[in-house]
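TA notes, week 10

Several of you asked for a full example with nothing omitted. So below is the full record: structure tokens for the whole chain, then the designed sequence directly under it. When grading your own attempts, check the secondary structure regions first.
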């Protein structure tokens, strides 16, 4: 096991970290450091990549105990530790308890660690802003993993009353329904064995699977299902224009990519850690600048260091 880092001398006013695997391209550090500067805060956000530092799920508890001792104000948690982190925290925000996973941890002065999940409120905020005038009563959700459960919670909070869920593992759909149905008795959550049977019966569709992100090309659903939909959303943000969104737009659907959710997640975490109101528009602009850096690096036109990402709930 790799020992967690000791204190870095005098820590900055805001010391943060990201716990996860394969996070070398995360845009989160640059996003938070940039916003903190505009609030007059010295912020250092470190990537605590398990692939680099050699820790695993069994070591997560020790890391979460050591980080506040080293001066950390908080941490983000991503794949594959979001569910495992729950059992190592002193308290959970209600959303984190309902979803059974954590993506944001706030450390108190006494080292007390409180877990939050900003996935659902972030997606809900984007839906309310971008799809305010669209019907959301009947929606198909693709994917019932950790990201899918958060998106399902957001859709139910935003007025979805019939939620159809498709996943290759029926047990995950059952888990999603068991977690959310008691909190949303007004809604019906149903398994969608063959999504094609729902053609013409839906208002919208959300993709919460990895299909469409870099390294997982393709469409997560038969494109014929998109005909007649009012809107289609994808929580993938790298690439922002997935094959699904491109096909949906071609068929006349309104589309929503994953970048808005990613920015809102960061904004909500910044508020939790600092008690200050982030400028979401400014964070969005910084996100787009980072996206341009990623595109330049991948095309070989820019040698500057980059931080990127793939999926808003990853």
């Amino acid at each position: 096991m790799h020992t967690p880092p000791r204190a870095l001398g005098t820590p900055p006013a805001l010391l943060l970290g990201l716990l996860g695997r394969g996070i070398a391209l995360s845009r989160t550090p640059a996003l938070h450091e940039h916003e903190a500067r505009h609030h007059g805060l010295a912020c250092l956000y470190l990537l605590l990549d398990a692939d680099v530092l050699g820790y695993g799920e069994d070591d997560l508890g020790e890391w979460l105990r050591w980080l506040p001792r080293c001066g950390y104000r908080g941490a983000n948690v991503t794949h594959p530790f979001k569910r495992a982190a729950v059992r190592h925290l002193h308290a959970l925000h209600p959303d984190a308890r309902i979803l059974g996973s954590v993506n944001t941890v706030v450390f108190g002065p006494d080292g007390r660690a409180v877990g939050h999940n900003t996935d659902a409120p972030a997606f809900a905020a984007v839906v309310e802003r971008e799809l305010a005038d669209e019907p959301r009563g009947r929606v198909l959700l693709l994917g019932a993993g950790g990201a899918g459960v958060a998106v399902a919670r957001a859709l139910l909070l935003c007025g979805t009353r019939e939620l159809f869920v498709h996943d290759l593992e029926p047990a995950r759909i059952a888990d999603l329904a068991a977690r959310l149905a008691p909190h949303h008795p007004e809604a019906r959550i149903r398994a969608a064995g063959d999504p094609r049977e729902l053609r013409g019966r839906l208002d919208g569709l959300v993709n919460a699977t990895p299909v469409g992100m870099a390294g997982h090309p393709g469409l997560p659903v038969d494109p014929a299902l998109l005909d007649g939909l009012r809107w289609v959303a994808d929580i993938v943000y790298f690439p922002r224009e997935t094959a699904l969104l491109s096909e949906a737009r071609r068929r006349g659907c309104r589309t929503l990519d994953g970048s808005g959710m990613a920015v809102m997640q960061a904004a909500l975490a910044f508020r939790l850690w600092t008690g200050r109101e982030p400028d979401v528009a400014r964070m969005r602009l910084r996100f787009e600048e980072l996206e341009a850096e990623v595109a330049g690096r991948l095309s070989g036109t820019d040698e500057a260091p980059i931080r990127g990402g793939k999926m808003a709930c990853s």
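Residues 302-309 have pLDDT under 50 and may be disordered. Use that as a sanity check on your answer.
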